[in-house]
Amino acid sequence: MEQITLFLNQILRHSFLSKREKAEWMEEMSAHLHTSIEHFKTQGFSDDQAVEKSIEKFGSPSELKDKLTKETYGFKSKTILLIASLSLILFVGSLIGGLGLNWFGIHNRYIEILPVLFITCSILGISLFLTRKRMDRICLIFMPVLFAVGYLQAYFHFLSNSFGNKLDFAMFENLFFSGAYDYSNRFNFMLIGCLFLIGQSTIIYLISKNRYLSVLPAALSIVYTVTHMIIFKLYYALFLSVDFMSAVTLGYDRFTQGNTHRIIDIVLKLVVLVLLFVIFNVIEKSILKLKRKAII
Fold first, then answer.
1. Last residue of a domain, one of 40, 70, 100
2. What distance in Å separates the CA atoms of residue 187 and residue 253, rounded to the nearest whole number?
3. Quick check: 200 and 146 in contact, CB under 8 A?
4. 289 and 158, same structural domain?
C-alpha cells in the first residue's frame, strides 16, 4: 500500500541507518502494520479506515525515528547532532576569539590549539553515526591518539628527548603535526606517516569490521592539515604587519613554503583513504560471497 510505504519512509528518512538496516526495519514494520490492518478489517472497518487506524496506533514518525536511532546508536540523533554542532560552533568561536585576542596583544599556544581540539570533538561526535558496538566507540575514542601525541610534542615538548639518544620523541611531531613543516626531506616523513595511518586503519578494521570507521585516521589527518592552513593563514594575513609569531611556526616565509608540502600531504592521505576504503569494501564483499557459498 502506497500510504504505508510513505509513512515508513517518513520514519526511516534521515535516520542515519545503513541501507541494510533500513530494509530490515522497513520489512519488520511493514509486516506489523499489515497485521494491524487485517485486525481492524475483521472489526468491520473499511480498507482506508483500517490503514489510518493502524498508522495512528503505530505512532508519530518523529517519535519512532528517535526510538530507532536511540536503539541503534544509544543516543537520539538530535543529541549526536547537537554534540557535533556545538563543537563546530566552539571551533569557529575559538578561532575568531583567538584572532580578536591577538589584536589586543594576547596570544599563546593554548589559543592556537583550542580550534584543533574543538574540530576533533565535532568530527568524533558526527562519527558516532558510523558506530554500532561498544568496541567501535572505543576505536573511535583512541583514533586521534597519534595526532594528540604529535600536537603535545609540537606545542608542549611532551616527552622531548626523554629516552636519551636512543629515541627522539620529536618524530611524532614530524609525522603527525602539520603546523610547522620542515620543507627539507619532508616527503620521507609523509610516506612514513601514511604507513602509520595504514597500520592504524587496518587494526581498527580488524576490530570493528567497519570500513567507514577504519578510514577516519586518514580523514582526520587531512582535516588537521587543512585546519592549520586556515588558522595560520588568517593569523599571518591579518597580523603580518605587527610581526605575528606563532608558538610552532618560525615566520611567514617558512609557513608559506611549507604549504606546498601540506598540499602534497593532503593528496597522499586522500589516495590512502580511497585505497583503504576500496580494499576494505572488496574484503567485505569477498567474505559475503564465501558465506553464501558455504550456505549453498
1. 70
2. 19
3. yes
4. yes
Taking the C-alpha atoms of residue 263 and residue 226, their distance in angstroms, rounded to an integer, is: 9
* Measured distance CA(122)–CA(124) in Å, rounded: 6
Rounded to whole angstroms, the Cα distance separating 91 from 99 reads 13
Domain count, the chain: 2
Confidence at residue 65, expressed as pLDDT on a 0 to 100 scale: 82
| Residue segments in the chain with a per-residue pLDDT below the cut of 50 | none
Cell of 127: 562519527
Domain end position, chosen among 46, 70, 94 = 70
Domain extent at residue 261: 139-295
* CB contact at 8 A, 90 and 49: no
d(CA 157, CA 256): 24
119 occurs within a structural domain: no
- pTM to 2 decimals? 0.82
Contact 204, 139 (CB under 8 A): yes
Helix (H, G, I), strand (E, B) or coil at 292: helix
The reply to whether 115 falls in a domain is no
Task: Give dist(CA 186, CA 265) in Å, integer.
Answer: 9
Rounded to the nearest angstrom, the gap between the alpha carbon of residue 189 and the centroid of all alpha carbons in its chain is 24
Q: Supply the pLDDT for residue 296.
A: 63
Q: For 65-86, what is each residue's pLDDT tens digit?
A: 888 888 888 888 888 899 999 9
Separation between Cα atoms, residue 79 and residue 129, nearest integer Å: 11
193 with 139: CB under 8 angstroms? no
Phi/psi of residue 182, nearest 5 degrees: -85, 120
> Is residue 158 located within the same domain as residue 283?
yes
